[in-house]
């Protein structure tokens, strides 16, 4: 199993309350031995002025999933912070819900790299993103 911290979806969703993810309706839905999944509505909170899913909202979903997954791979007092995120927007989405699937590409002692693929309601890939995080230990 990839994860080093014990948790469940309900606990992770509670941890996210009050942050940007909860404000735009992101919900974590599935935690397997190798992946973390979540969904986000395509509505007035996440659309750009022309009615399409805002690319920035897709990036928020991707970075949220990758950061939470990174935290689950850390230990003790370690924290995970984003270093770089990129996204390729491949298909427009105008309604419904999108689903993000986060997988580890690398989980080292100091750096992690996450692949997050985002699918529409018809299971078509609409965005692919990569997040690099640094694993840090707070100074006393």
UniProtKB/TrEMBL annotation:
Source organism: Dickeya aquatica
NCBIfam families per record: unchar_dom_1
**Gene3D superfamilies linked to this entry:** Hotdog Thioesterase
**What gene is this protein translated from?**
menI
Share an example GO biological-process annotation for this protein. Answer: menaquinone biosynthetic process
- Say which family it is in: Belongs to the thioesterase PaaI family.
Q: In which pathway does it act?
A: Quinol/quinone metabolism; menaquinone biosynthesis; Quinol/quinone metabolism; 1,4-dihydroxy-2-naphthoate biosynthesis; 1,4-dihydroxy-2-naphthoate from chorismate: step 7/7
Q: Which InterPro entries does UniProt cross-reference here? A: HotDog_dom_sf, MenI, PAAI_dom, Thioestr_dom
Name listed for the protein in its UniProt record = 1,4-dihydroxy-2-naphthoyl-CoA hydrolase
Q: Which residues bind substrate?
A: 82, 89-92
Which E.C. number(s) belong to this protein? 3.1.2.28
According to the record's subunit comment, the protein's assembly and interactions are:
Homotetramer. Dimer of dimers.
Signal peptide annotation = none
Which reaction(s) does the protein catalyse, per the Swiss-Prot or TrEMBL entry? Answer: 1,4-dihydroxy-2-naphthoyl-CoA + H2O = 1,4-dihydroxy-2-naphthoate + CoA + H(+)
Report the transmembrane regions from the record: none
Superkingdom, natural source: Bacteria
Q: Name one GO molecular function term.
A: 1,4-dihydroxy-2-naphthoyl-CoA thioesterase activity
Asked if the keyword Lipid biosynthesis belongs to this entry, the reply reads no
Looking at its record, which EC class is this enzyme?
A: hydrolase
């Amino acid at each position: 199993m990839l994860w080093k911290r014990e948790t469940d979806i309900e606990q992770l969703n509670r941890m996210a309350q009050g942050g940007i993810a909860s404000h735009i309706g992101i919900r974590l839905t599935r935690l397997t031995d190798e992946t973390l999944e979540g969904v986000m509505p395509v509505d007035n909170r996440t659309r750009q002025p022309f009615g399409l899913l805002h690319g920035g909202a897709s990036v928020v979903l991707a970075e949220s999933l990758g950061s939470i997954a990174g935290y689950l791979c850390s230990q003790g007092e370690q924290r995970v912070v984003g270093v770089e995120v990129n996204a390729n927007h491949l298909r427009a989405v105008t309604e419904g819900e999108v689903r993000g699937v986060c997988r580890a590409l690398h989980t080292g002692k100091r750096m992690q790299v996450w692949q997050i693929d985002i699918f529409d309601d018809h299971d078509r890939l609409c965005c692919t993103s990569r997040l690099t995080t640094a694993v840090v230990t707070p100074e006393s």
